[in-house]
Amino acid sequence: MMDQRDKKGDMQEQGLELNHLAATKTTLRMEVAALSDVGYRRSNNEDSFGYDSETNIFVVCDGMGGLAAGEIASDKAVDLTLKTYNDLTSQEINTEQRLRSAIDSANETVWNMAQQDYKLRGMGTTLVAAAMLENKVIIGNVGDSRAYFLRDGDCVQITEDHSYIAEQLRRGGPIISDEASQRLRQFITRAVGVHPNVEPDFFALDLKPADMILLTTDGLTRYADANKLAHHIYMHSNIEDICRGLIAIAHEGGAEDNITCMLLRFS
């Protein structure tokens, strides 16, 4: 089993991590590239990502909490999601159930760590994950890290943000001013590790050649909507270059937060 978590240290030191996968055990070939950057305003990177190319599970997390707590939360959430999902490989449960159990395990571990150490109280993390089986993908998310689906030049946000602003808009609440939006953007309504239990959202998609999936933290999406993401992604053929360019978009906007993106392309 090839686990990509062992390169986390290099990512934190250099602000850059690229991974490439030639093929998987699905009927589609797949490439994946991932990059994380600390941004201009933060002294440490609280984002984490990881994947396992044998079981086809891909995870991106954005930690939150004082001192290094956010980094701990996101790192543990990635590790436990991958581990639990892989541990359930031999059991006769469907992909969504495996992913749900993996996210539950991550939530329980982060929650318990915070209860046992007062310095970690209040820590948590967003999580977005993609799990593939043959030509289907299940997306699970908690928080405001997002998954986008790209096909035939279009880019559609798959996930729904679990944030105060997004919840208000879904309920038909009043339009929030740009200034207020900036202040309220940080308020997340669901996160891994903040409560004893968590309720992820799940989405299922059928895949075909040339489809792409982007998993990303809000360090990128606050500077680019779906149209801007699509314009950049379809302008380039090398997925590692695409990830570098997405990070550059966040830098051009000021890069006030950590930025992580993971791009999956099928052929």
TrEMBL record:
Residues 31-266 form the PPM-type phosphatase domain. PANTHER family: PROTEIN PHOSPHATASE 1L, PROTEIN PHOSPHATASE 2C. GO terms for molecular function: protein serine/threonine phosphatase activity. SUPFAM superfamilies: PP2C-like. It comes from the Bacteria. This is Protein phosphatase.
